[in-house]
Amino acid sequence: MEVPGQPLLLLRLEGPLQSWGLRSRWDVRDSGDEPSKSGVIGLLGCALGYPMYDRRLEELDSELTLGIRVECEGRKLVDFHTITGTIPMAGGGVKGTPDDPSTIISPRSYLQDAAFLAILSGPAELLFRCRSALLAPKWPIYLGRKSCVPTRPVFEGLSYEYANLEDALRRHPWRWEGRATLREYPARLRCVMEDPLGEAVRPDRIRTNPARMYESRRVRVLWADFPGESEEGETCISHA
Asked: Who contacts 220 (Cβ-Cβ below 8 Å, separation ≥6)?
């Protein structure tokens, strides 16, 4: 069988709310306009069962290259979030005391009704391992924040059909489950692709450290002509 291109892992990120923080610190939680690399690597880490601060997360970040295509931009939503009393913790127990009179004010930003195609390139063995994990995730996966649940299977496919990551961003069929609400389909789609010579910077490279500080990476923004819509139920071919 002819294999024309490099292996690429394709993900569909869709849900009523998504939040991909770039500069979130303490109680102020922002969201970028598209998925961050730290968020996508964290999603894969949940599927693989890698806990926070695990060095393997940093290895995933280093070995995988990310491209994002915006299928639907969505709208920004800011939640005026208040917290008081006790908070249940994921590891058991509670944080705070019932009689604590102070209230934490935490503005939290989300993308509402947004949809993205995320494409990852890297070593074939690693991509296949990620594919297996996404089909049977160790922990629940989410779209940047634990409250942001995907509304469709995240795994779109593992494909050899494209020459490289940019070719897939430009040619992979468009799809969005909320497309019935559109008056017309977009003529072009915004793409953000990792490129060492790119003109823009994203501060979202995972580095395992107690301060949860991230490194920057360069990206290139490009526009892809609308590639046509995928058929209902159409998926990519995964080569075993």
From this structure: 192, 193, 194, 195, 197, 198, 199, 200
Structure tokens at 138: 């160790």
Q: CA distances (Å), 74 to each of 77, 109, 176, in order?
A: 10, 13, 11
| Tens digits of pLDDT across the chain (240 residues) | 455 678 999 999 999 999 998 876 778 888 999 999 999 999 999 999 999 889 999 999 999 999 999 999 999 999 888 877 777 776 778 877 877 777 888 889 999 999 999 999 999 999 999 999 999 999 999 999 999 999 999 999 999 999 999 999 999 999 998 888 888 999 999 999 999 999 999 999 988 777 778 899 999 999 999 999 977 655 555 544
Amino acid identity, residue 237? I
Q: What is the pTM of this model?
A: 0.87
Structure tokens at 10: 């394709």
Euclidean distance between the first and final Cα of the chain, in Å?
12
119/49 Cα distance (integer angstroms): 21
